[in-house]
Amino acid sequence: MGNVIRSVKYVIGIDEVGRGPLAGPVAVGVMASALPARKLSRLFRSVKDSKKLSAQKREEWFARIREETRRGVLIYHVSFVSSRVIDRHGISYALKKAMKMSLMKLACDPKMCRVLLDGGLVAPEEYVSQKTIIKGDEKEILIALASIAAKVLRDRKMTGYGKQYPQYLFPQHKGYGTKEHMERIKQHGISPIHRKSFLKRVDPVVDFGIARSARQKRVMPKFTIGVDLR
Question: Interior CA angle at 106 toward 55 and 69, to 5°?
């Protein structure tokens, strides 16, 4: 299939989204291309880190990413690790797990790749050629694109949770610790997708009782992660 990388040397950009929220999964996006950096720069002129783009602009860039994926210019995957795993093993473990999942889906020989990572991220040791770049999402196009893909797909996922748990207003804050979000937690208790380990640090007196609607059988929103996601 077109999403299996051929045996050529090319570059992978990696970024995470959702490290800090009080609810929902963490996401790691990987974006790969065999195209020279100069040609990528022409294709994605003026692309920015996802945090500096409006939601509409991120969606527009994501549509462009999907278009270039269909053309074979890019290959991307976004993987999620749940709040339950974060609470059990910690955010560092969850980030590593999500990254490993995404890289495995690329089916790339680690010896044939150069990996560029944002911030404090580190790829598995078998990826010998790797570089962690402070503010890499502002300096490397593939990292910026990985950030956009991860942000768009995580936001969509949190919007889906908003239908399941409307009392928390997840579509508005995407699980981050806004004042409104904290008030909703105090009013309704926590949902199954809240990160208890994070809430204890933010507000030790938060009621950890499960909200009434969350006591019902848990039905998770269904998402297809990969290059064919619409």
Answer: 50
Residue-wise pLDDT tens digits, 193-214: 999 999 987 665 555 555 544 4
Residue 151 and residue 174 in contact, taking contact as beta carbons nearer than 8 Å:
no
pTM over 0.90: no
Q: Is residue 153 within 8 Å of 229, Cβ to Cβ?
A: yes
Q: What's the pLDDT at 45? A: 86
- Both structure tokens of 167: 């009392």
What type of residue sits at position 145? Answer: L
Lookup: tokens for 137: 């999402």
- Gyration radius of the chain's alpha carbons: 18
